[in-house]
Design a protein that fits this description.
- The structure is a single chain.
- This protein is an alpha+beta fold.
- The chain folds into two domains: 170 residues, no CATH class; 248 residues, Zn peptidases (Aminopeptidase).
- The chain contains 14 helices and 18 strands.
- Strands 5-6-10-7-11-16-12-15 form an eight-stranded mixed sheet, with helices on both faces.
- Strand 1 and strand 2 form a beta hairpin.
- Helix 4 runs parallel beside helix 6.
- 40% of the residues are buried.
- About 1% of the residues have low confidence.
Length: 434
């Protein structure tokens, strides 16, 4: 059930004791007094606000498209259309400065005109604020001087704008809420990939689906003679970094199995779960999608390998020309959490100690101090890339008890690995080899 703070936020108001603006404090107090202890509908709150506009001013009797300067003026809440008030207020509190708005009056799309241009991260936040089952779709229109955010909805779905306002309020109130939303959406990406079968030697379905995904996210794609799916995305000058996960599972995923969730842990009702290494695949796709919002400059190469489970065959047979200019590799295929594997059983090093240490540093930058480098990993594609002379690590990706019916994955831990790698890229911690 929605609490009073959330109900008020849908209409661009805080609870009265948290309102510092005197006009809004008075409005909020009056509304809370009216609805105290009641289960009210959004339409009732809209009606309350309209009645108070007429009684208590300074209100305009009719809401309208209204041009204002959010940098120098108080937001003219009273002039905003009823179903766009909340969106506009919380956008401004999130640093997205607006200048004009209209809720569409149930006849056309709603819009918010910006005072300048939104960043990629701000556009990402706006898209996150749209619930997955929402009837509203966001479009960004760019002119010479500004962005305009368009909210498309059917005539009967204007109320869905209030859901977006509620989400933006939660984001403005708690920075952690954004990562919680991102984690939840990532879970659905992982769940989709856990349903794709493809045991060693039969990776065709995985490869076809990945090829479709990579066309939208990368500049070039190819399949080498070994059957590995390779891709490249250029993002300015700088190092060339390889991201890698394997496409095969140790055995076929059981048809008709059910994936269960307990907390953030996913398990299979029957047979293997397949998180080894569907978790790595999902993480790399997430990273590619987030790449434009980072400060990374350089080239990302991707290798989705075949037959890892039967002797690292895909990595051994990878197109050598494709990896010739790679400065460093990041493999996402380690069990558990927080391991930065830099060697195999303490006998073969994948890289210099300093390469593993920069991932520890990235962890500290985002409040995950317990990422730790270890030379005592197992065999993986990282070992093969190291044998080819590429500094490599294998990062924990959140699964446990792989190759068994007890396999599980903590999707929150998987997403935290995404955050770690994103931090490495965004802070440009990996340097180009001379």
């Amino acid at each position: 059930m929605m609490n009073q703070a959330e109900m008020m936020a849908r209409h661009g108001l805080k609870e009265w004791m948290n309102e510092t603006n005197m006009v809004l404090n008075k409005l909020s107090y009056s509304i809370q007094k009216k609805i105290a202890g009641e289960l009210v509908k959004d339409e009732q709150i809209v009606a309350y606000i309209e009645s108070l506009q007429n009684e208590e001013g300074p209100w305009n009797s009719v809401s309208q498209e209204h041009l204002f300067n959010s940098k120098t003026e108080e937001l003219p809440y009273y002039a905003f259309d009823a179903y766009i008030r909340g969106i506009v207020r919380w956008m401004n509190e999130l640093g997205m400065m607006t200048s004009m708005c209209c809720d569409g009056h149930g006849e056309r799309h709603a819009y918010v005109e910006m005072d300048g241009f939104l960043t990629d991260k701000q556009i990402h936040v706006l898209n996150l604020a749209v619930p997955s089952d929402s009837a509203v779709r966001i479009r960004i229109r760019k002119s010479r001087r500004r962005h305009t955010v368009l909210f498309d909805y059917s005539q009967t779905e204007r109320k869905a704008l209030l859901d977006i306002a509620e989400m933006l309020f939660k984001m403005s109130s708690d920075e952690r809420y954004i990562q919680m939303l991102e984690t939840e959406r990532f879970k659905h990406r992982l769940l989709d990939w856990l349903e794709v079968p493809g045991e060693s030697g039969r990776e065709q379905k995985v490869r076809r689906r990945l090829t479709s995904s990579l066309r939208k996210l990368t500049d070039e794609q190819q399949i080498d003679e070994a059957g590995n799916l390779l891709a490249t995305v250029r993002h300015g000058e700088g190092p060339t970094i390889l991201l890698s996960a394997h496409m095969d599972t140790v055995e076929r995923i059981k048809r008709g199995r059910v994936i269960h969730q307990e907390g953030t842990i996913l398990t299979s009702s029957e047979g293997i779960l397949g998180a080894d290494d569907r978790a790595g695949i999902a993480a790399i796709l997430e990273l590619l999608e987030r790449l434009p919002r980072t400060n990374f400059s350089g080239t990302i190469k991707v290798a989705f390998t075949v037959e890892e489970e039967t002797g690292l065959c895909g990595a051994r047979g990878i197109n050598k020309e494709f990896i010739r200019d790679v400065d460093a590799a990041i493999v996402l295929d380690r069990r558990g959490t927080r391991d930065i594997v830099t060697g195999c059983r303490g006998m073969f090093d994948f890289c210099e100690a300093s390469y593993g240490e920069l991932f520890e540093r990235a962890g500290r930058l985002v409040g995950m101090d317990d990422w730790e480098a270890t030379r005592n990993g197992g065999s993986s594609d990282a070992k093969i890339f190291a044998e080819f002379g590429i500094a490599s690590v294998n990062l924990s990706i959140g699964y446990r008890d792989e190759h068994t019916d007890f396999e599980e994955v903590d999707y929150c831990a998987t997403f935290e690995t995404v955050v770690l790698v994103e931090t490495v890229l965004s802070h440009r911690l990996i340097q180009q080899n001379s």
